[in-house]
Amino acid sequence: MKKQQGFTLIELMIVVAVIGVLSAIAIPQYQKYVAKAEVASVLSTMTGIKTNLEAFIVENGRFPKGEAGEMPVDLGAPEVMPLGKFSLKPGTKDAGTLNLEFGKTNVNALLQGSNLTLAREAKTGTWTCTSADIEKALLPKGCTSTLIAS
User: Fold this and answer.
1) Coiled-coil stretches, from where to where (predicted)?
2) Residue-range domains of the chain with CATH
3) Which residues, 6+ apart, have CB-to-CB distance to 74 below 8 Å?
4) CA pair distance 128, 105, nearest whole angstrom
5) Whole-structure pTM value
6) What is the DSSP string of 57-77?
7) How many percent of the chain have pLDDT more than 70?
8) CA 81, CA 3: separation in Å to the nearest integer?
């Protein structure tokens, strides 16, 4: 009788194939998970800025114009946001948008160059979360997207 000395080549190839299949499934899912976490982080920061915007509107009777003294940094946005850059766009008297444009570096590839926007309606004072270029599966509940998931 011959004594078995180790694994056969076919057994090793099967193990490598199984690992390859598992990683082909797991890596894209992990990338989506990281992108969702980055979007949630940005939305959390934007919610804090939104509170300061409401206070500004109450005190001044208008939406900030994004000029000196009314920039996102002046209203509580972090000076350095590794994920992107904040901007304000005034609309009518007490309406406008707070936008974050994701950068090209230090950001998940699924989000690079995309935008997340909080818009304030004038009549009701309600805020809506939208994005035209982030797939819906990556956005938190309550945010809408016109991009069809890939």
Assistant:
1) none
2) 13-145 (3.30.700.10)
3) none
4) 27
5) 0.80
6) HHHHSS---SSTT-SGGGGT-
7) 97
8) 63
